[in-house]
């Protein structure tokens, strides 16, 4: 799920759906202040967190959007960036 890891309510929702693993972007507690809280919530609900970097987990939707715009006859280009491995 791209985006949403910082929403601590998502972990209760995922557990309720029988999900036990959450692949998301930022999982390094030193990266952002809210990450420690999500680790606590994930543990509380038995959810495994797997970090995939912020960029890597969200870029595919952006790539798809450029294809959508191209089909509409608009110029569009996805400009990739190097993933920040400190997110992990």
Number of helices: 3
**Whole-number tally of structural domains:** 1
Helix-and-strand structural type: mainly alpha
Radius of gyration, rounded? 15 Å
What low-confidence regions span 5 or more consecutive residues with pLDDT below 50? Answer: none
What is the helix/strand order? HEHEH
Helix content: 25-40%
Major β-sheet strand ordering: 1-2
Query: Number of DSSP strands?
Result: 2
Main sheet properties:
2 strands, parallel
Percent in strands: 5-15%
Report on the structure:
The chain has 88 residues and is mainly α. The chain has one domain (10-80). Helices cover 40% and strands 9% of the residues. It has helices at residues 10-16, 35-44, 54-71; strands at 21-24, 48-51. A two-stranded parallel ribbon has the order 1-2. The model has no long low-confidence stretch (mean pLDDT 89).
């Amino acid at each position: 799920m791209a985006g949403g890891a910082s929403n601590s309510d998502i972990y209760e929702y995922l557990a309720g759906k029988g999900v036990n693993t959450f692949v998301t972007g930022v999982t390094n507690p030193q990266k952002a202040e809210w990450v420690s809280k999500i680790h606590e919530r994930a543990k509380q609900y038995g959810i495994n967190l797997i970090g995939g970097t912020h960029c890597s987990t969200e870029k595919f939707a952006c790539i798809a959007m450029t294809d959508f715009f191209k089909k509409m006859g608009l110029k569009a280009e996805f400009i990739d960036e190097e993933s920040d491995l400190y997110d992990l």
